[in-house]
Amino acid sequence: MTFTCKPTQWLWALMLLWTTGTFAQTIKGKIIDENQQGLPGVNVVEKGTANGTSTDANGAFSINVTGKEAVLVLSFVGYTPQEISVNNRTSLNVTMKTDNRLLNEVVVVGYGTQKKKDLTGSIASADLVAFKESPNVSILQSLKGSLPGLTISQTNRAGDEPAINIRGTSTLNGNTAPLIIVDGIIFNGRLSDINPSDVASVDVLKDPSSKAVYGSQAANGVVLVTTKTGRTAQKPSITYSGSYAISNPTVNAKLLRRDAFLEKIRDINYLNAFTKESGYTAANPAWTFANSELFPVSLAGVNSTNDYDWYSDLTQNALITNHNLSISGGSDKTNYFMSGGYTNEKGLIRNDDYGRYTIRINLDTEVTKWLTLGANTSGSFTNFFKDAPDMNSIVGTNPLVLPRDENGNFRINPIGDFQVNPFLSAENDRYEVQSRLVGNFFGIVRIPSIPGFSYRLNFGHNLKYFKNYAASIYGAGQTGSASKNDATQYEQTLDNIFNYKKSFGKHNIDVTALYGYNIAKFNNTAASGTGFSDLNLSYNSLQQAEIQKISSSAWQENLLYQMGSVAYNYGSKYLVKATVRRDGFSGFSANNKTGIFPSIGLGWVLSEESFFKVPGIDYLKIRGSYGENGNKVGRYSSLARVASTDDSKYVFGDGGMTSIGRSVASLANADLKWERTRGINIGLDFAILKNRIDGNIEYYNSNTNDLLWQQTLPQTSGFANVFTNLGQINNTGIEFMLHGQPIKTGDLSWDITVNFTRNRNKVVTILGEDKNQDGVEDDLIASGLFIGKPIGTIYDYKTAGIYQLADEKLAGFQAGTYRIEDLNKDGKITAADDRQILGNTEPAYLFGIQNTVSYKQFTLRAFINSVQGGKSSYLAGNAPAGNYGTPGNATNSNWFDFTDFWSPRNPNGIHPNPWVPTPAGGREFFQRNFVRLQDISLSYNLSEKTAKKIGASNAKLFVSGKNLLTLTKWKGWDPEVGLGVSSVNAFPVMKSYSFGVEITF
């Protein structure tokens, strides 16, 4: 049988097939929370497709679905995901329920993830959203003060890498930095090399049980950084964010200008510049500046009315510029995230500049149901540009002299002494770049016949190039100097991770086994030259140097490890986790290459018990853990090392050639072993008032034994010291974090988080010696170690103000010097008899308060950070630094206008006159307590209608500030720079004002 159709019939048939295959239906709706408030940013995706959108600032959305029976998948952080069937509807209104953040939040725990409700150890997760609008160059700046137990140092230079400390100091000579893990791979480098916009989460492992999975490197804690990935079944999303910040010092200080500088010279010479009859406050008309110790060039500046502002001309406009562009998305099988970023930071001092380019491609794909492959790759390219003048050299000049001579050339020593013109370093030709390439590749295999089993292979590569080139026409005594230093560092990590999860009834078991290694290699070659006839080719023609030198070095270290971990819970009520890790490290002695580090954690969720029915308490868990962690020694520390020094050279015979030999530089210690930290952690997790308030409280106590220590040897041995194990340190502390939502209505919400940390360490034993036979172990005063006292104990003279003119003084002391307490009342001050313990440098406690207030499309965030010293902690000397050891140095140098030296006209000055000799030094220690408005931001989310006008799905404008207000009694630069006598001349801490935009297409 044959069928025939007219052309018009074929056309109608084709149109019918086309319309049937491309059915589209528009669904509009609104998503609200339990308080009827619209939820912005909720992901709305048609199940089984990459078709999706997100809600606007009011919770509204619109999406075209491909069929009447389509299913929409709704997901939003902090809320329970939902699947909604369309059922031929065109309008949907959905209420999303809160997903309890305490119970269901997933945290990275090392070689895996775990729900917070199942944790037995102490793990803190950072709230990165709270600092998203802050002008932070490094992710570490977003963590500062925000997590209990985590201390991040202040930054005051462009591109600075802040120091990290977790739960205080537990070592003397061992490594003090925590272990950094990025995307599951050991990361030995600067976290500042990672673009903060690429970071999805930061989790900190603090207690021995949580840290035990990383064994030998975990004594100082572990920081787990996870970068962003795409989302399954999400349409491509393009996001741009950019910000521009201007900065200036938190303390508005200037160097003394001409008139003030001349006044301070009179005060230095008060015995002659003022009359005795007036109490040295009325000017002596017979005295002139020619009678002072001004150098001739400065004295000439007095007569020529010079008033040069060195500080202003050696500073620049401090700026921070950030640009980030990312593309993310995914299908049913593949997720991807790609980004590029550019950061430029200009510090306050000329040439204190930093630039960073970053790229990242994270990709994973489900090849089959049993195989997933992926890669986390990134590149970071940083430039530290040129040399910035040293602050001491800036302060060492004075306004009476000029930087250039009559011919426009720089004066080498402008004040006529050894102080070098600070402009000279700014004129150096400098090329300092660091390039890091990271490639972490992984594969996950699941065996269908063994449900719950998976095998993951991580293969990580980390390659970093260092280039540091420099040339200076003023170097080597103005004969010219140049150098090139090229170095590479390569790390390779291979992890074999076996995991098995099984649930039967209320029993849940999670078993992990690990076998892996980490190899690190480094090599560098350096060449330098001095004495150039010209430096037109800068550092690219070292062969022109009269004196040429070349050197090279290299090292390698290996780490081999195995780990087994079992986590069990019964109905999420009774929790147990046990871990054993074995590490072998090449740096240890032949007799102690390996160490074994066990741990166990227990948890009991009381609120799950039938007998526990306490009104208002929604969740209550008690947990405790015990574990051992190790600390690695520096490579080659156990070996007898040799060196090619000048002492090893020998000339054989008259007129013979010099032979270069090698000599033993250090003693071997075949018994050098792992430094071990054993400790307990007890925690309480809770949620009350319908989960409106939640938090946790922690107590920990640990002891570090077999401390790595450079023990002094008798001179007859031929060596100064040898690395060995001795002593014990105790470390205890209390932490808590409290989160609440005091207000949550339709248009207004207020979210607040408070964290608190108190840490105390003490030296339990050192050498075990009791030479004076008093029954108490002797302190190691020369090393600043005292039995029963903190590591940062201050042992010095106690001051009681400054001697005034009319005061009765001890022999050798004068007006303007410290009045030092004569402890043994013998009428003289000696180090052996009159020094005493004054306090310590460690904080007494720290706290942070994060507030987030949202009203309609506005969000205000404010974070307060504080460090307090209590009665006698968090102390530092606050003596102005400089070349003030003699009246001549003090006369010709300058200082900042906050410097408060004593003089007869300023009897209440807090600083003694360091140019006045005394039989004893002494310095006063001041507390560095502060409360700081560290971060504040105000953002505005554009409505969906407005965003669509510019073709965007979401858009946000924001302004922010950093370090805008600091409350402190500290005198001088910022209290977080006050770490010693040179703190006054450190670079200042900056406060910033920024504005920016974030747009998603």
Question: Could you explain how this protein is built, in words?
Answer:
The protein contains 14 helices and 48 strands. It is mostly beta strands. The strands form eleven sheets. It has a 22-stranded antiparallel β-barrel. Strands 10-15-16-13-14 form a five-stranded mixed beta sheet. The longest helix is centred in the N-terminal third of the chain and has 15 residues, at 7-21. The two termini are 56 Å apart.
What keyword list fits this structure?
1001 residues; mainly beta; 14 helices; 8% helix; globular; disordered N terminus
* Overall radius of gyration: 33 Å
Separation of the first and last Cα atoms? 56 Å
Average pLDDT reading: 88
User: Which range best describes the helical content: under 10%, 10-25%, 25-40%, 40-55%, 55-70% or over 70%?
Assistant: under 10%
Helix/strand structural class = mainly beta
Overall 3D form:
globular
User: Stretches where pLDDT falls below 50 for ≥5 residues?
Assistant: 1-23
Number of helices: 14
Note the beta-strand portion: over 45%
Sum this structure up briefly.
This protein is mostly beta strands and 1001 residues long. It is 8% helix and 46% strand. The chain is built from 14 helices and 48 strands.
Secondary-structure map:
Layout: H1 7-21, E1 25-32, E2 43-46, E3 52-54, E4 60-65, E5 71-76, E6 79-85, E7 91-95, H2 101-104, E8 106-108, E9 113-115, E10 123-125, H3 139-143, E11 150-152, E12 164-166, E13 179-182, E14 185-186, E15 199-205, H4 208-211, E16 222-227, E17 234-249, H5 258-268, H6 270-273, H7 296-303, H8 310-313, E18 318-330, E19 334-346, E20 353-368, E21 371-383, H9 391-395, H10 422-426, E22 429-446, E23 453-472, H11 475-478, E24 481-504, E25 507-530, E26 547-570, E27 574-585, E28 594-605, E29 617-631, E30 642-643, E31 649-651, E32 658-660, E33 663-664, E34 675-688, E35 693-712, E36 721-744, E37 748-765, E38 793-797, E39 799-802, E40 818-820, H12 831-834, E41 835-840, E42 845-855, E43 858-868, E44 875-877, H13 887-892, E45 925-927, E46 930-941, H14 944-949, E47 954-968, E48 990-1000
Parallel strand pairs: 1-7, 13-16
Antiparallel strand pairs: 1-4, 2-3, 2-5, 5-6, 8-9, 10-15, 11-12, 13-14, 15-16, 17-18, 17-48, 18-19, 19-20, 20-21, 21-22, 22-23, 23-24, 24-25, 25-26, 26-27, 27-28, 28-29, 29-34, 30-33, 31-32, 34-35, 35-36, 36-37, 37-42, 38-41, 39-40, 42-43, 43-46, 44-45, 46-47, 47-48
